[in-house]
């Protein structure tokens, strides 16, 4: 059913426009024998004050984040409690939980960012067609890291080689060859709302409302696409229409958007699931 009142389409980036970093987390858990979704439970369990959340708001520098992120995820006392509660809430049997973990925050974050460096051509084509129609504002609303600036003074020395990291080598390690938000990604949108720039993040209602205010719309005049239920619920409470984009389900999600907007967003494209092009 079409929604003729809509004035804007709001897209999440990681997991919608780009490949989900959750894929890298799942692979890391399998490699190290960590229960599925354990790491994400630990990230979410920290609430608004964890290293991940602070980094997304642009409050801590990169290498400080690495250390704090790894330290928090290695805290099995807290992590096991959060995971046991997650299993209870989901009604699933709790597996044997780790006695100890030594998670390298830099290594995990690097894997996540490299995974998220691939664009989903189904979504990119939809964005281009929406913009070409000229009827809707196209907005990015992302928990992201645009504010990240690698300070050469914080680059550590490699214990193995006795040499220092470089800004260039660290950007390459993260897959950020043009920075965390390259210009060709930003160019897809009429407005790009990045959590680290504005010091707020999803699912904080203020972040959604800021995006609406910047673009001259009311929440009930927007449809929002995201891969995380917690972010969709927050948008829905504000009056936005929402579409869930599960991993591997972008084509189905864009078909739902197609129905809401009443324009063709999917014909004429038969790509592989993800484009080989990197951000």
UniProtKB/TrEMBL annotation:
GO terms for molecular function: phosphatase activity. It comes from the Eukaryota. SUPFAM superfamilies: HAD-like. InterPro entries: ACAD10-like, HAD-like_sf, HAD-SF_hydro_IA, HAD_sf, PGP-like_dom2. PANTHER family: HAD FAMILY PHOSPHATASE, HYDROLASE, PUTATIVE (AFU_ORTHOLOGUE AFUA_1G12880)-RELATED. This is HAD-like protein. It comes from Ceriporiopsis subvermispora (strain B) (White-rot fungus).
